[in-house]
Amino acid sequence: MSAEAIAESEKVLQTMPDSSVGLTELAYSLAAGGRQPEARRILQHLEEKSKRDFVPAYNFAVVHLALNEQDKALYFLQRAYKERDWALMVLAVEPRLDSLRSDPRFAGVGAEGGPATVTLRSWVSRSPSVESGDRSSCFRSDDGQTASNPP
After folding, report:
1. What average pLDDT does range 55-71 have in this prediction?
2. Rounded CA gap, 27 and 59, in Å?
3. Is residue 142 one of the residues assigned to a domain?
């Protein structure tokens, strides 16, 4: 399975070089397939890329999880919640996160109710602009940065 996933991820990168999604999926597949040194090189590339372009925190979370780095994965999941990362909409059903479900810290992602209760309504409503009808800043993080302008 991992060989097929690696091949598919490489195809994505052929058509969209330096794609954050393609790089993430390739790093995840390599790590899951036991090729950690290669996965770590791609993770390092993603970290460098994030200094000039937006790379969702969720992407880092799944790669760290495949590298068996649960603490880092949980850190990035919480950061993804603060960034209002759309990928968290699948948090309750994403199979790649299954190894975290028994960790009490996983239930704390997104604060009070845990990941299963993170809904689009509660997630977006945390933005003060929603009440005013301005949806342009719904993806503003707690520090005021928008997803297109991370710190």
Report:
1. 94
2. 10
3. no
